[in-house]
Design goal:
13 helices, 50% helix, 15% strand
């Protein structure tokens, strides 16, 4: 196996690209052809990284999928994510990066809500593709952070830097919403595949062998990250992926309950519930009735 190059701090990353470090916990990198200290095929960061790539300059594998650097593309990397880079020694990287350590945002509003920016856990093929106007907004946010870094630290610096990072991330939420809308045809196809996947699941022995279908399992079958899959389903249906799965299980349960030849316990096991009591609670939560009450009413 290839050795993983771990870069724990922002300062180390700046040094890796022969860049002066202005703050140990945050940096704006203008690659401008900067060549790294060494070419590593696998890297692992101890901080958040957002890359804005301006030109195609090589392939990056993020998870199991290859990411081809495209013009005006944002790629988000969370601490601990393994990045596989397939580049040649002649390439000159172009673009920008925002790097910030978890310690920078600890105790701030952003630190408390960083998990809501689910795109840090997206796969590379789910990267954000920007319009020219969106790119200018991103660079404006980067410029404000760079200004604070270059003017020297005072009592306002940390707040302004963190606020501008949060502003940038909030813009990215908006841009991803736009991307979900503009890719509506693709999303509808994924939703149709999701429906087919759930139908196939209950036409197999999987409920009895592995239990209820999970969001993670469904996302893996559709070659999506769990977070991207969940965000897509929420935007397309108004329900979380888990709520959507449970609604489909409830619909199937209703059909089975009307078959008086099967006991409630048998139906629970057929649907993948480990315990009948769990099925009863879930069914009542979704319908307002216990399975037996629903059977009696119908």
């Amino acid at each position: 196996m290839d050795e993983i190059l771990r870069i724990d701090t922002v300062s180390e990353h700046d040094a890796f690209y022969h860049k002066e470090n202005l703050h140990p916990l945050v940096s704006i990198m203008d690659f401008d052809g900067r060549v790294p200290e060494i070419y590593a095929s696998k890297m692992n960061f101890g901080f958040y990284a957002v890359y804005l790539k301006e030109v195609m300059c090589g392939d990056m594998k993020y998870g199991r999928h290859t990411y081809d650097y495209q013009d005006r593309t944002l790629l988000f990397v969370a601490p601990g994510q393994i990045i596989n880079v397939d580049i040649n020694a002649d390439y000159k990287p172009q673009g920008y990066a925002l790097l910030f350590h978890p310690d920078l945002i600890r105790g701030t509003s952003l630190g408390q809500h960083i998990d809501k920016y689910t795109f840090f856990s997206y796969e590379s093929k789910e990267a954000l593709h920007l319009s020219e106007r969106e790119r200018k907004i991103v660079l404006d946010c980067f410029d404000k952070i760079r200004y604070e870094l270059e003017r020297g630290m005072d009592k306002h610096s940390k707040m302004l830097i963190v606020d501008n990072i949060e502003l940038f991330l909030n813009y990215c939420v908006r841009f991803y919403d736009r991307q979900f809308i503009t890719r509506n045809d693709v999303n509808n196809d994924i939703l149709a595949q999701f429906e087919k996947l759930l139908n196939g699941y209950y036409q197999s022995d999987k409920p009895q062998t592995i239990g209820l279908p999970s969001v993670t399992w469904c996302a893996e079958q559709l070659n999506l990250s769990a977070n991207y899959f969940g965000d897509l389903i929420k935007k397309e249906t108004g329900k979380t992926a888990l709520e959507y799965i449970h609604s489909k299980i409830t619909d199937r349960a209703k059909q089975k309950i009307l078959d008086n030849q099967k006991t409630i316990n048998e139906i629970a096991y057929e649907l993948g519930f480990k315990y009948p009591a769990h099925f009863t609670r879930a069914f009542k939560k979704n319908t307002g009735y216990t399975p037996n009450e629903y059977r009696m009413l119908n």
